[in-house]
């Protein structure tokens, strides 16, 4: 992925297996979020392709990628702050609804049914992420950790096969990070695949099945957590010095 003369992703080859938690780590500016933007249709790759579940998805519109089963969260929480927690999740559920403006305006039966189902699904997902007790509160009034979980619930409402989490632990306290780790594992246990960007290495090492490391847009390591943790190139990328330097 190039932006003018800047190469943000260079020759990257990743394969993520169904049902695993795969972490993408690296120093700031390594190209991790650019990878998310390419996968979800924000950017079309300058070269190469993105395949998902038997479909080539590079170049598709974001809504089309979502309908195929890919959802994401963001580094900075993006919620509809004046809507309730339940309403935020219902927006996610709308991704698969067939009712358009006319059906909603006329109050047609299938629109009422979809709205009823959407409300029930929102309640179920808010229970799942642990925010149902704040269901009718405005998103802007929720504590930061609850806003993070609400954003995950909204992404889950699109019924994704692949969930991309962009630094979900950012700004969380230690107790919230432990709860988040448990939540990500439970998401995986529902049969979904998780692609994770995260700077908290204890969280990454604690939940990831495999890890890939980027540095200046290139993959410098990939493997099991223990393999990556002890990789000399990874240590150098993070510390800015050779691994054996005194």
UniProtKB/TrEMBL annotation:
SUPFAM superfamilies: P-loop containing nucleoside triphosphate hydrolases (SSF52540). Transmembrane segments: none annotated. SMART domains: AAA (SM00382). It comes from the Bacteria. Keywords: ATP-binding, Nucleotide-binding, Transport. One of its GO terms (molecular function) is ATP binding. Pfam families: ABC_tran (PF00005), BCA_ABC_TP_C (PF12399). Residues 1-241 form the ABC transporter domain. PANTHER family: AMINO ACID ABC TRANSPORTER ATP-BINDING PROTEIN, CONSERVED COMPONENT OF ABC TRANSPORTER FOR NATURAL AMINO ACIDS-RELATED. This is ABC transporter ATP-binding protein.
């Amino acid at each position: 992925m190039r932006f003018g003369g800047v190469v943000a992703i260079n020759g990257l080859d990743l394969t993520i297996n169904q049902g695993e938690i795969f972490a993408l780590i690296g120093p700031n500016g390594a190209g991790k979020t650019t990878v998310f933007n390419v996968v979800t249709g924000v950017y079309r790759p300058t070269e190469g392709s993105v395949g998902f579940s038997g479909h080539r998805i590079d170049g598709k519109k974001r809504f089309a990628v979502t309908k195929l089963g890919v959802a994401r969260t963001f580094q900075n929480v993006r919620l509809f702050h004046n809507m309730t927690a339940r309403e935020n999740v219902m927006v996610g559920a709308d991704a698969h609804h067939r009712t358009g403006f006319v059906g909603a305006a006329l109050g047609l039966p299938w629109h009422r049914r979809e709205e009823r189902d959407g409300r029930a699904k929102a309640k179920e997902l808010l229970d799942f992420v642990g925010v149902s007790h704040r269901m009718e509160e405005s998103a802007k009034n929720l504590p930061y950790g609850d806003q993070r979980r609400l954003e995950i619930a909204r992404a889950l409402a699109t019924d994704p096969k692949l969930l991309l989490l962009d630094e979900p632990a950012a700004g969380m306290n230690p107790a919230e990070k432990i709860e988040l780790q448990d939540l990500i594992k439970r998401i995986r246990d529902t049969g979904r695949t998780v692609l994770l960007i995260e700077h908290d290495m204890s969280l990454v090492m604690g939940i990831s099945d495999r890890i890939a490391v980027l540095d200046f847009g290139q993959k410098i390591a990939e493997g099991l957590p223990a393999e990556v943790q002890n990789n000399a190139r990874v240590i150098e990328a993070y510390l800015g010095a050779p691994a054996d330097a005194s």
